[in-house]
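> call design_seq(struct)
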């Protein structure tokens, strides 16, 4: 006789378990519990958690829901707040870093709109399409390197170097030291975790993050000085020009560069990594992409919906507000579980199934919504589409190696630490990108 499972865990315990490294492998049952219990108030803290599609959508579009932490009581109470690490950069290198200020991701309109507009042209669908030949070349180079070494660790060899190289090229940064940026931007990715909101403590590794933040700020401060002295055809030079025309100040130039490096890298690594894992587990989907590279577009939306690179976002109530009948007092931090919302069957049919052959593309909130809708969505989609396509075409019979999967400790930017694959080889790059139609 089996004993019926009696769930005695409180909503608060569920939230705390979401923070646990043990939950990284599969947090989805916990998200589902949190969604069913919505709204979940964190006891003794001005924090409420939403996980339904409708509630997340409504908060993301609500102008009363702010991205600025000065509106959060949580922060005023000294509990720390989600967002960029609150540190001031000390002098480092030849040029002293400018003061740390929040990036436009953590600003509200109108300043948010003005700063976003200064870089948005570089990430428009048309601008991004011009990057396609470079991205294809890079993907083939990475697969050639893996073929030459005879092993494929899909995160370190493929998913991670791809976006960091692409965003470095867009910004105009030397890609020779990409490991240097990778390790620092990965550390900064932890500063958006919701430890302060749920547990009232800081994420472990604060000192390392502070150091990484200072080093990146010092690096960009020097880069801005270099580009001012000798401008090039790159985004950093364009921002320096905008500064000279009075569009923004130097601290904003530096913080915007850091945001773009960080946002353009961490999320896309996880999209490609989570996608390669899911596709390796579903060879029929890889076949679909191999037969029809058009299916790779749908596969990208499937992965975004099923296993989003950015699992949750925060908003702060700048005034008393109402979220689908829930009264949210001014100063409350709202945690929006995008990864839970995407699997809300009330909004997304067959939400738990990976199916790149769906009749209508899957809907999801993985790029956010409203004024902060992901600026890099066209770029992230393009990189992932090309990566999935080429993986399907060149990597023969990929299989997971024995042993447990290792996830990074991040909660918000959840992704694999490593994805070693067994294969029957990697085809050479002469395989055509476009599969001839039968
Ligand atoms: C490919 C996977 C990606 C995912 C899942 C993703 C997800 C998101 C999400 C959810 C937001 C909104 C955050 C919020 O509302 O608080 C966001 C904002 C942003 N993303 Fe992405 N992103 C991705 C790729 C990229 C890339 C490649 C870039 C390139 C630069 C980028 C740059 C940004 C920027 C600058 C913002 C801030 C926009 C604003 O505040 O107006 N993202 N992203």
């Amino acid at each position: 006789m089996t004993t019926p499972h009696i769930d005695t865990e409180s909503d608060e315990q569920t939230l705390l378990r979401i923070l646990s490294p043990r939950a990284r492998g599969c947090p989805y049952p916990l998200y589902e519990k949190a969604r069913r219990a919505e709204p979940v108030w964190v006891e003794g803290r001005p924090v409420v958690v939403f996980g339904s599609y409708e509630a997340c959508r409504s908060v993301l579009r609500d102008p009363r829901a702010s991205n600025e932490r000065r509106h959060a009581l949580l922060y005023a109470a000294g509990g720390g707040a989600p967002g960029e690490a609150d540190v001031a950069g000390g002098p480092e290198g030849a040029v002293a870093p400018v003061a740390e200020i929040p990036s436009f991701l953590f600003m509200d309109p109108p300043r948010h709109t003005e700063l976003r507009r200064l870089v948005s042209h570089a990430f428009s669908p048309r601008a991004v399409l011009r990057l396609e030949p470079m991205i294809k070349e890079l993907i083939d180079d990475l697969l050639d390197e893996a073929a030459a070494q005879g092993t494929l660790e899909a995160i370190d060899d493929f998913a991670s170097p791809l976006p960091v190289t692409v965003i470095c090229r867009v910004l105009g940064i030397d890609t020779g030291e990409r490991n240097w940026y990778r390790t620092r931007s990965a550390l900064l990715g932890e500063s958006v975790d919701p430890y302060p909101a749920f547990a009232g403590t800081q994420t472990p590794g604060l000192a390392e993050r502070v150091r990484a933040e200072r080093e990146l700020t010092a690096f960009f401060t020097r880069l801005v000085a270099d580009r001012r002295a000798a401008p090039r055809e790159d985004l950093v030079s364009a921002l320096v020009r905008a500064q000279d025309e009075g569009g923004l100040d130097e601290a904003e130039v530096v913080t915007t560069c850091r945001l773009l490096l960080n946002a353009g890298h961490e999320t896309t690594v996880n999209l490609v990594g989570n996608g390669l894992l899911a596709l390796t587990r579903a060879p029929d989907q890889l076949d679909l992409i191999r037969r029809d590279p058009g299916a790779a577009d749908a596969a990208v939306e499937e992965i975004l919906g099923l296993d989003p690179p950015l699992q949750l976002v925060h908003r702060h109530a700048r005034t008393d507000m109402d979220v689908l009948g829930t009264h949210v007092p001014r100063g409350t931090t709202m945690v929006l579980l995008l990864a839970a919302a995407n699997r809300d069957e009330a909004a997304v049919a067959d939400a738990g199934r990976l199916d790149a052959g769906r009749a209508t593309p899957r809907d999801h909130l993985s790029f956010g919504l409203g004024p902060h809708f992901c600026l890099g969505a066209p770029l992230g989609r393009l990189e992932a589409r090309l990566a999935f396509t080429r993986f399907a075409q060149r990597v023969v019979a990929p299989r997971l190696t024995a042993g447990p999967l290792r996830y990074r400790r991040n909660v918000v930017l959840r992704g694999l630490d490593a994805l070693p694959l067994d294969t029957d080889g990697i085809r050479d790059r002469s395989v055509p990108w476009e599969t001839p139609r039968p």
